[in-house]
# Entry
Amino acid sequence: MEYQININYQFTAESEAEANDKAKQYLSDNLTVKPLPESILSPLEVAAKCQDFRKKKKEHFCVFFLDTQNHILGRETVSIGTLNASLVHPRECFRTAIVKTAASVIFVHNHPSDSLEPSPEDLQVTRRLKDAGKLLGIEVLDNVIVTAEAFVSMKERNLL
# Structure
């Protein structure tokens, strides 16, 4: 987890000891430590956050909802399909994104067959979701395919 501290405070003092006392008092009164929200910056991070379904025998289709700084607002599994298919509709994929006022989404799904090649259905669904996102003003950043041991980014393969 990453943390951030910002201090921008100027004051006057008669001595170094008084300055130290004022600085300590200021920190005591004003310093709070809080974790920064989790972010997603790469397909590797997406894959790492999907360990719970990478080895499943049915296809799981999941959506990460992100704010303007790629902080994770939430994650939702929108479909659990069969061995080699899942039913994915833009309505289910973007419903929560709208409620959470997400700026962008990342889709991820597993291939129980362990194949990293996007199927024709994967390509069709991805195009449909990207078009729906454009209409809604919610950017589709990627569609990541995961298997038990590996992953592939459709964006990195220029398929998005």
